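dumping this here so i dont lose it
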């Protein structure tokens, strides 16, 4: 299940259901799966602002992750619907920063995370500024 709505101009909501294959022997959602859940939140947040990874890549810009950190508080379990709150917190130069909060069906915080991505020119492999139209929308969303 995946659903997104814009909670505010800065925070976006995506829901994912923990699949059986995403659990470990303890019955917990394996911690490494959260990186993929955050990617879903990030991609859908950008899409809701009118930008897609595919279009960026078609225009010769890739967005690799520079930094990723997460702090876990509680586990998630098989078949739970998780709510991923994704915020775009800063767009500066070639970098874009995201923050995430994952909540379970009871609204309890399971973890908090941050990622920094870099706009990179696919041909040269060098960092580049965000496309001008995208930078304006992203900066407007982080300043409200």
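and the seq i came up w/
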């Amino acid at each position: 299940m995946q659903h997104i709505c814009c909670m505010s101009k800065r925070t976006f909501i995506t829901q994912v259901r923990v699949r059986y294959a995403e659990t470990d022997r303890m019955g917990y959602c394996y911690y490494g799966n959260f990186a993929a859940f955050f990617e879903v939140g990030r991609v859908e947040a950008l899409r809701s602002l009118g930008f897609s990874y595919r279009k960026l890549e078609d225009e010769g810009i890739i967005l690799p992750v520079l930094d990723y950190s997460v702090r876990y508080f509680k586990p998630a379990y098989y078949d739970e619907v998780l709510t991923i709150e994704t915020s775009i917190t800063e767009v500066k130069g070639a970098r874009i920063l995201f923050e995430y909060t994952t909540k379970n069906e009871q609204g309890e915080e399971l973890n908090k995370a941050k990622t920094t991505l870099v706009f990179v020119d696919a041909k040269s492999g060098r960092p580049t500024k965000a496309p001008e139209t995208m930078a304006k929308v992203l900066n407007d969303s982080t300043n409200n």
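The two ends are 29 Å apart (CA to CA).
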